[in-house]
Amino acid sequence: MFTVEMEWDETAITVLDPTAEYEDFQCIMYDDVVYLRQWDHDLDRHHYIVMSPQMMHMFLTSFKLPEGAYILGDKE
Question: Hey, where are the domains in the chain?
Answer without folding.
Answer: 2-62
